[in-house]
Design brief:
The structure is a homodimer of 224-residue chains. By secondary structure, chain A is α+β, with helices and mostly antiparallel strands. Helices cover 26% and strands 39% of the residues of chain A. Chain A contains 6 helices and 11 strands. In chain A, the strands form 3 sheets. Chain A has a 6-stranded antiparallel sheet with strand order 5-6-7-10-9-8. In chain A, strands 1-3-2 form a 3-stranded antiparallel sheet. The radius of gyration of chain A is 24 Å and the shape is elongated. The two termini of chain A are 15 Å apart. The relative contact order of chain A is 0.13. Chain A binds a DNA duplex (19 and 19 nucleotides) through helix 3.
DNA sequence: GAGTGGTCTAGACCACAAA
DNA sequence: TTGTGGTCTAGACCACTCC
């Protein structure tokens, strides 16, 4: 077994089991190097990974300490709907309702509305704006045939995003598009996407509350 | 500036700006070491960080490549309600409605119900089960005075968790507790928490949809 | 001031998968 | 087979911060 990996995993196990409590001092790099019979750089690497995972906190001169548990945070995956529904084993379909160019701040933008279907039933309605200045290729894409999210995932590399998730009651027109009664509880997901400082796309998806939920897992230090 | 940090940031900037596209080959460690005039280990560290951040993918013999953008995922923070509401500048209050011990699989468990208030108005109702076998100290905590989440955050280190988020209509009793009309759209958050393989607590929180939303940020490689 | 982490070097060997 | 990443070493110097 890797010395670095072994050191990292043994310390992580001691922390996760509760044997080492938050605030406890972790031995110094020199101590650990002597104990494991390896170079200090190897210990340093292991501890750096634990620090990146949030399990320990390191301070010069003071030493390394078991970190206090963070406020609950979780990695939530907001997948492409076409993939998600296919993974469920249901048929997926995108139906565009409106596609138009509208003037935007600098260049023009594409405004798209449509409905995502799973197993023949409406799952979500989508309202999206795509900045053509940032994604000129989108002007030639056929969003009547391909859902914008699917197309963008394949064409827009390395963006940052901000999601806001709420529960809202479906308005009349929305409820009609989703084939539910007015006022039905729906999950609203808004996502703003940027490349660098420039906005790429904004999307609002409104999901039938009874057919969609988000799942988020959290595991400290699961990354390495 | 740190050589490793500089190499990492320059490559990250090239990827994020779109100058280097997904699938593009990144120069080998030896090339980069020569170009930056540093040791290969330094380049290796920088590239390892980029790989951990998901910006590049590394394959032996093949080389390092700009990764394809991941399915949208985001780090969602599910904070302690007391902290969150205090951060908003509103008064926070927890009101327990029922606390009882019930038999569980191995030992007994604590069953707690109550309401979270923000600015004097109900924000969420909470139903929670705490496994006393895993958290014996909870038997002596005063959950009439302290919200269980707040207490647990301070007493239970290093757990893993799974969240499920849905939009649901408030049932009659729930609506009454939240001071809304029956059928109002609410955000339901269920969280199962474990330490190792052993369940610690299960909680269901039902938020007034008009007063609460979740925010999630995503930024590739924001971590280092 | 002294102890601790943070970083770098130059070199070495190994593991692995692509050519 | 060979080129590439993956890891480790022994040593060095620096930066910070607690005492």
């Amino acid at each position: 077994m890797n010395p670095a990996r072994r050191i990292r995993d043994e310390i992580a196990a001691a922390i996760r089991s509760g044997e080492w409590r938050p605030g406890d001092r972790v031995p110094t790099e020199q101590d650990l190097a002597a104990r494991y019979g390896c170079a200090r750089a190897t210990v340093s690497k292991a501890l750096a990974e634990l620090a990146a995972a949030g399990l320990v906190e390191r301070r010069r001169k003071a030493g390394t300490f078991v970190a206090h548990p963070p406020v609950h945070s979780a990695v939530m995956t907001v997948p492409d709907l076409a993939e998600l529904i296919a993974a469920r084993g249901e048929a997926y379909r995108w139906e565009a309702r409106a596609i138009e160019r509208v003037p935007a701040k600098k260049a023009s933008a594409l405004h798209i509305e449509g409905v995502h279907f799973a197993a023949g039933e409406p799952l979500a309605i989508e309202t999206r704006i795509i900045e053509l200045a940032e994604v000129p290729a989108a002007a030639d894409a056929d969003f009547a045939a391909v859902a914008p999210g699917t197309w963008l995932l394949a064409h827009i590399p390395w963006t940052s995003a901000r999601h806001v998730i709420r529960a809202v009651a479906a308005a009349r027109a929305e409820a009609a598009a989703l084939a539910v009664a007015g006022g039905t509880a729906c999950l609203e997901l808004k996502r703003d996407t940027w490349r660098g400082a420039r906005p790429v796309t904004h999307v609002r998806q409104l999901f039938r509350g009874d057919r969609f939920d988000l799942v988020a897992e959290f595991q400290a230090g699961s990354r390495p």
